[in-house]
Amino acid sequence: MDRIELLRNDHQRILAILNELITGGVGKVTQTGDTAREINRQRRTLYDKLRELLVRHLTIEEKLLFPGLRGFVETRTLVDECCREHKRTADLLGRSEQLTESSEHDHWDGFLLQLERHIQSHVEREEDWLFPRARLLLGDAKLEQMLFDTEQVTSIQSATDIVAASADSFALGILA
Question: Could you state, in order of their start, the residue ranges of all structural domains in the chain?
Fold first, then answer.
């Protein structure tokens, strides 16, 4: 198994979670009271899982895969397109913060459908165009090395998240 295979697995998990959010019934009930609050809580928990997976996935691609492919004329434009799509994904995720507080299901559902279309298009670009070229240009040894480098990137990201959470907790007086 190499980095490309793991990125493909991430794509499948991301799309499965999006599908569950859209069609799995989470948030489809319009009742009030405890049922609506529970549905919103479930939706938020699942969405937080999706967001975490997306951020980790995008970080790994941008820090490990894209820099190696920018050096090749054959993939430079494609990598630039993928980076623009990553920016769009980040913008969409930022927009979601306003919606997660909202109880208007139509806005939430519309946002999820927009996110799904965007992610599906991005996945197709990577899996149909970028990944095959990456395998040819970088070779199996480099892709396997990226698998090990991933652990280092995610460890650094986790340490950064812990420090940021501690700083936030301190600012809120939780750790004081």
Answer: 3-147
Terminus-to-terminus CA distance in the chain, angstroms?
Answer: 45
Residue 114, classed as helix, strand or coil, is helix
Q: Are 60 and 130 in contact (CB under 8 A)?
A: no
pLDDT one digit per residue (tens) for the chain, 176 residues:
778 999 999 999 999 999 999 986 554 545 555 677 787 788 889 999 999 999 999 999 999 899 999 999 999 999 999 999 999 999 999 888 777 555 566 678 889 999 999 999 999 999 999 999 999 998 888 887 876 666 666 654 544 453 344 334 333 333 33
Position 157: which residue type? Q
The interaxial angle of helices 3-23 and 105-125, nearest 10 deg, is: 160
Q: What is the pTM of this model?
A: 0.77
